[in-house]
C-alpha cells in the first residue's frame, strides 16, 4: 500500500499490481522466485525506509530500490506523480 499511496491508482494497478500478480502466479514454476521480482524487492525497500530501525531484514526477502527503467514505466502510466 505504500506504493499505491505514492504512485497513484493508475501506476499501481496498471504496472505494479499487474506485474506482481503475474510474478506471484509463476512462483515455483521453472525455479521462478517471486520474492526476488522487482515489485517485491522494491516493496521491501519501501518498508525498510518506512519502518527504519524497526524493520527486520531477511535473506528470504531481498531489499532493492526500484530501477530507473521501472520507475520510468511507472511514470509513463501516470505522468502526474512525483518521481
- In total, how many domains does the architecture comprise? 1
Overall geometry comes to: flat
Radius of gyration: 13 Å
- Measured between the Cα atoms of the first and last residue, the distance is 17 Å
| Helix coverage percent | 55-70%
**Beta-strand content bin:** under 5%
Task: Please mark out the parts with pLDDT under 50 across 5 or more consecutive residues, or reply none.
Answer: none
Number of strands: 0
Total helical elements:
3
For the biggest sheet, the summary is:
none
List SSEs in N-to-C order. HHH
Mean pLDDT: 86
Structural class: mainly alpha
3D structure, described in words:
The chain is an all-alpha fold and 83 residues long. It has one domain (2-77). The chain is flat, with a radius of gyration of 13 Å. It is 58% helix and 0% strand. The model has no long low-confidence stretch (mean pLDDT 86). The longest helix is centred in the first third of the chain and has 24 residues, at 2-25. The protein is built from three helices and no strands.
